[in-house]
Structures
1.
Amino acid sequence: TPQISRNRLTRCRMSNLPKLQNFIDGEYVDPADGTYIDDFCPLTGKVHALCPRSKDADVAKAVAAAKAAFPSWSRTPRQARANLMNKIADLIDKNSEELADMETMDQGKTYGFAKNVDMARSADNFRFFASAVLHHEEMSSEIDNACINYTMRQPVGVAALISPWNLPLYLLTWKIAPAIAVGNTCVCKPSELTPRTATRLCALLNEAGLPKGVVNIVHGLGAEAGNALVVHPDVPIVSFTGGTVTGGIISKSAAPFNKKLSLELGGKNPCVVFDDANLDEAIPEIVRSSFANQGEVCLCTSRIYVQRAIYDKFLASFTEAVKQWKAGPPKEATSRMGALISKEHLAKVKSYIELAKTEGGNIVVGGDAPKLPDAEFEGGYWLSATVIAGLSNDSRVNKEEIFGPVTCVMPFDTEEEGIEMANSVQYGLCASVWTSNNKTALRMSNALQVGTVWVNCWLMRDLRVPFGGQKMSGVGREGGKYSIEFFTEVKTVCMKYV
């Protein structure tokens, strides 16, 4: 997660800029001490709103509201909860253009990505879990005609939901939907870099008729509002998506309370291309997997391993394809990428490009800012899609998460070497394999130390399957029944026959 520079922070009770608000107990409210954070538009580099810098008092008020709403909401019939969630989904669809505009201005992504990916998935999240909660099954067993055991799942209580800046509403709703579907209430802490769609969602929750206090949103810094939420004694469960370092801090903070934790953290995702792969199909997808959403997706490809026999051919074709993946104004049809999230994050990503040069890398394409047609965007945080070759697999650039539009291409010889190179980092979120040999695909899928393997595709998501990472990429799984299991406590009942 990008560090917040001091010039982002301000105590601003008087300003002409729009002031966002927290959402507590069904109402929009100002932060208790009147402190705000500058919310920059990545496309222009200008402040376009003020985000509340909430503290302990704000979090305590939100948790109290969620705790008060829990008894009634947890007893609400599942069908009634599902009906409300479907209404929320319909309202997201109805307002998708407005929400996509907000996401574009707040996050820097293209409007097409915001509309067709972020908003579509945000609505799908509510619809999916509205249905899933109606069809979830539990187990029963009998002991020698003496007694019967059965399990039941009950909501945990007030859930802390902390979401990132790369897919703001998409990932926030991925947490809210299952949490409230099973009867929890929640307090959400969206990223302070992208607070606008979370704020707008609250009005849609009220319009749908969601009871007060079921969903509360408190804006602010992770070290302040986020920490206060994680350590609050009335919050027994935490779902976090974000950086690995922050995930470690949350683990330590939550440990004394024995809280349930789901942590979806960083990645350094490999793509392994064998010499029998169909490059006409593979290359467009690998370009997309490397640079979608400016490479600011935890599942994006950042290491491409190509079998040596086709390495030169692949690199030449891949480079030409990347040149067509243009960064530009968010609503232009030719723009495939927008701007990076912040000035600080842009500097971090560019520092890795410079590091690559010192580590022996060759910048094949990109590495600089794109030429933009409109002066309006000159102050934005822009970077062209960048491909680096010639690096050692042991270089820092190939070991550390960059989280931007940068990918490295390296050759390998044998399948065993490809596996070793792909598994050589501390992360284990996802991988993709390109081959026409099903036996190779199966062996690779078994050997790769990741939570998800895509074979001859990328980011084909089925919301029923588990999602999460191995190693330093996280703890736990979410999706389908795995989300339902995480957001509930299972209870066993043993009843003796009478």
2.
Amino acid sequence: MADLMEVIEGCRLPVLRKNQDNEDEWPLAEILSVKESNGRKSFYVHYIDFNKRLDEWVNSDRLDLKKIQFPKKEARTPTKNGLPGSKPSSPEREPEQNTTGGVESEIRSVGCPQYYQNFVSDYFQKRKVDAVSLVSQGSPTTPISSSSESSQASLYPQNGAARRVVAAQPGRKRKANCLGTDEDSQDSSDGIPSAPRMTGSLVSDRSHDDIITRMKNIECIELGRHRLKPWYFSPYPQELTTLPVLYLCEFCLKYVKSLRCLQRHLTKCNLRHPPGNEIYRKGTISFFEIDGRKNKNYSQNLCLLAKCFLDHKTLYYDTDPFLFYVMTEYDSKGFHIVGYFSKEKESTEDYNVACILTLPPYQRRGYGKLLIEFSYELSKVEGKTGTPEKPLSDLGLLSYRSYWSQTILEILMSLKSENGERPQITINEISEMTSIKKEDVISTLQYLNLINYYKGQYILTLSEDIVEGHEKAMLKRVLRIDPKCLHFTPKDWSKRGKW
């Protein structure tokens, strides 16, 4: 049996946790970090084959030291010039010269740990190289890392399901991201052209995955009457990560360090709804359209909050190429944020959603499907078909799969036969009626096992179980978008004057 002192970062061992049925289980977990306070050690663990949002700090009582697996030493491998070398697991480096500008010096001044300084130093050195190439080349491309590609290689991993490999697109423009969160650092001042760009992407580049970004850094967020437990890392300022609670204004999403600061801010904040235009209202539900260029601070604060609950998307401070559609619930105190989705102003790949999120207090209440339905209503007004940007999170994939299934089945069941013959419809007609991209229609039909080959032609067969299940699901789906309440005029973003 190993001693507690031998448990280091990289070790794997069973860890006690409660499952959904509140029963004890011992899944294998990896130690990501170790800290000691008041003479007791705590361990930050990631459960293997579990989502990162379940990662947590545990004490030694929950570790099974009998089955510990120590990290393997890196084998020495030849380097590019043929000389023997080794790949260090977590090298200890001397502090480097401050070549990354004022942000790194600010981080050093607040007394951040050495590993955080190293992370920021490497991060900004790479961004400086990217910025130089951006100026010299004009339209750079940054390939999506192989781990991002493989994570969503199979969209529907069931028998007979369509398999789509999400490959990096060579012509996509990527945004230069920045870890700094001060308002001054949010402007483009490091050599990147300030002219508005037409496209962008929020797909996470996993090449920057680091021990810092793998760990949750915010303990708790207070947003209005709700307290939220973040699921993932979000690059809020380092000095705020040590606080037990981070306070946010629920109307402008400004973050402050204490309740007193929040109360002082609320006396000066005039907002009672998101900035931008209200383009939809029915009952207590409203949608606001926010331009990422005109309302940059709000958009950046929204991205910071969303990153706490989205792992597959990354945060970029260049919000100019994006529109944000924020869904709110109205009461006597104002319009309270429920969720949002963002989309590119001009997408070359027919994306109608870049990021989509329903905040945890409002999940499992039909708001996710309402956001998805609204995104497709906008596509209908624009006269386009659309699809969400890949990869989707596990919860996002479930929501989209459910929405596509219900929408397509709703159309198929509304078809009526003429002259006693079977009703006929094409894939293109379904796509035009719903604004769902043709590939998503085909993959959904295959996922539902509706396509059959009969007497030389493809037919769609609806079983009684599918019909019955669909009718039950539609009875539960109370929240729907009413197209009559939508007041939206699409813009041609290819014209520079619209910016």
3.
Amino acid sequence: MCDPDAPRSFLVCYDGSAESLHALQHACDLSKPQDKLSIMHVSSTALPQEKQDELKAAAEKELESAGQSFGGGKEYYFEVNDHPGQWLSTQCRLLSIDYCIIGCRGLSGLKKTVLGSVSESVVHHAPCPVLIVRGTCNPATV
């Protein structure tokens, strides 16, 4: 049986969207102070340092408002990759992530067929449990 007090590691996929903010909020709700958080942003083009700083500041603001300190540490990753679902799944394996939390935009039909679904790819390939957070956060809490 697992030790309920043992530190856990969470990977949150974060791109600044309302859906990813909602995923980050869920990570805060599910985590304990000793847990570790890896916040990852994957895009097909390189982000300028200014944009990376903006995303990091927005995530930090959300973590601060949630009152979560992550004593196990916080790490930010910004990756350029044309296959984000595969890259995120690989990171889950390499970093021994316990739980992956990802938002979902709810694409359907032709858009999903053409664009694919990052969350669907992660669910199928990640070696850990994956929580897909649907919808967006309550604007009153942001």
